[in-house]
Amino acid sequence: xxxxxFNLEKPELEYYFHEMVQAFEPGIKNVVAGDWDTKLxxxxxxxxxxxxxxxxxxKTFKREYQVSDKKNLEDKGIYKGYLYDFLSxxxxxxLMWGSxxxxxxxxxxxxxxAAGFSEEAIAMRLxxxxxxxxxxxxLLLNLSKxxxxxxxxxxxxxxxxxxxxxxxxxxxxxxFISTTVDRKRENLSHYFTNLLLEIxxxxxxxxxxxxxxxTIYIGGGTPTVLDVWQLEKLFAVVKENFDTKNLREFTxxxxxxxxLSQEKLELAKANGVxxxxxxxxxxxxxxxxxxxxxxxxxxxxxxxxxxxxxGFKILNMDLIIGLxxxxxxxxxxxxxxxxxxxxxxxxxxxxxxKKGSKIKNDLGISxxxxxxxxxxxxxxxxxxxxxxxxxxxxxxxxxAGNSENIGYAKSGAEGIYNIMMMSERQTIIGIGAxxxxxxxxxxxxxxxxxxxxxxxxxxxxxFNEILEKxxxxxxxxx
Length: 478
Fold this sequence. Notes:
By secondary structure, this protein is an alpha/beta fold. The chain folds into 3 domains: about 1-95, no CATH class; about 95-145, no CATH class; about 155-475, Alpha-Beta Barrel (TIM Barrel).
């Protein structure tokens, strides 16, 4: 692995430089001391920012950038923007997202809009300051507009996330916080008992604050790893402790068909779930086998039919670009099969090689250029032709093509929890191991995050201590 040494006049820029360098060269090792193959130097000379790359053989690549206002030298984003220009010239490559490396770019548009900026001024800011392409600028502006009414309708309400971070097995690409259920299902049983206690304790706090629940999202892991009686009990505890009469959305992730049954889906429908996530990730059986996802394409088709017969309002189906050895044609084959079912939501992810996944452990961070920008445009066009528009977006590091994950929906079927979570304009209470909550303060338009220990074993062993501390933090913040 190549080693890049940061030689920074401003050490506080290290994180920003790491993010930008990784966008161009995912997996390169960045250090601030020790042996190196290449050295990246940053220094300021008057009102000029200078960057240079130096190699052990004496070869160098150097550029200077004039800063118009001395005050801008205090803006870390200015340094990041010019670093983007520098690396873009060196690599002879432009990134569609420019210098933006954050997870939630739509928030930038929403904050500028709230501050009174015109659409033209926001577009200029995105393209000049962040170096975004015109296409991604228009995408963010459109997403912000779509989300406005959903965010407004969620004011003074809260969302609930209930996490079940256990799976019967782990897919090779997965980096989510999840634990494999043991053979006797003891870790699941212990966790489930504690989860119900946490639901009851948190709900009691929320009732004291007279808070209205807007959305409920049961996610994982794999929530449908629960037995039928456990799932029935979970729904009963949720309904006993939360007022669900005013819910705009109730989602259950039912991603893996090897954990599904008609009885579980019937239970979900009978208990008010109106949005089901059935997530094949690929409709290519060879790909599913290669990534150790124990689902059969024929079972996916069968459960889509069951979901439709039971009358769920919204069906979401996920696909991942870049799995196994798939090429663009393989992906479009999966997409066309999904489109034939006409789910209300289709979420398109890009494979992200992250810590915790078997792929990362086996191969390290090895990220290619994806299938090219023309491919991504074709995906969006194919979906638009079938009546789907983007409604939410987020980005992750180490993705093929430095791309993005986009949720598409038919008009009127947008995933409300996803919008509220990514906009960070509503309090979301996270329940369960690994669940992160956001306490939203409208006056300052800021959030305070409430974290829960990720490890199932620790959660189970220290449950009383963890619950007491968490309830105290929530109570103080609300």
